[in-house]
Amino acid sequence: MILGVLGTAKNTGKTTTTNALLKCLSDKPLAITSIGFDGEDLDHITGLPKPKVFVEESTVVATSEMAAKHSTAKLQLLKKLEITTALGPVGIYRVKQPGTVVLVGPHSSNGLLTLAETLRSENIEIFLVDGAINRIVPFQHADFVILAVGASRSTNIDFLFLETKVIIRTFELPLGRGTRKVLKGLISTEKLSMFRGESISVESPMHLLLTEDFAKLEKLLQEIDIAVMRKPKLLCVTINPCYAERRAEGFTLAQIDLSELSKMIERELNIPCLDVVKEEERLCRIVEEEIGKMGTLEGGISP
Amino acid sequence: MKFVLFPLDPVHDVALKMLNRELVKRKHQVILLPPDTKMEEVIELCQREMPDFIMVSRTVGYGAAELLARFIDMLDAAGLRDKCKVVVGGKAITKELAAELGYDAGFGERTSWEEVIAYVEGRQMEKEKLKVKKNKRDITQGYTYRVHEPTFKQLLDKITDQILDWVKDKTSPAIERVKIRERMLEGEDLIEEYLKFCDETVVSYFKKNLLPKKVRFITREESKKFDQLIKSLKLDDRILRHTLDKPLVFVQYGTGCPFMDAMHIKVSEAWGADGVLHFDPSWGARCEGLLEGLLAHEEDGSIITLENLKLIKSSLDVSTLWCVRAHRGLNTPETILLAARAGADLTKINMVYGSLNGGTDPERLTVDGVYALKLAAKYNLPFDIPTNEELGGVPAPKAFAGMLVVAHLGVKLNAKPILKPLFCYSPDVMINDYMKDNYIDYNVAKVIALRQIMDAPIWPGEPIGFMTHTEDRIQSAMTTALHAALASSLRLDAITIASTDEAYARGAITVSARIDTLRAIAEAFRFFGQAKIEPTKRAEEYAQMIVNGIYETLEKVAKREDFVASLYEGLFGTREEGANPGRAGRGTVRKC
Question: What does pTM read for this prediction?
Answer without folding.
Answer: 0.73
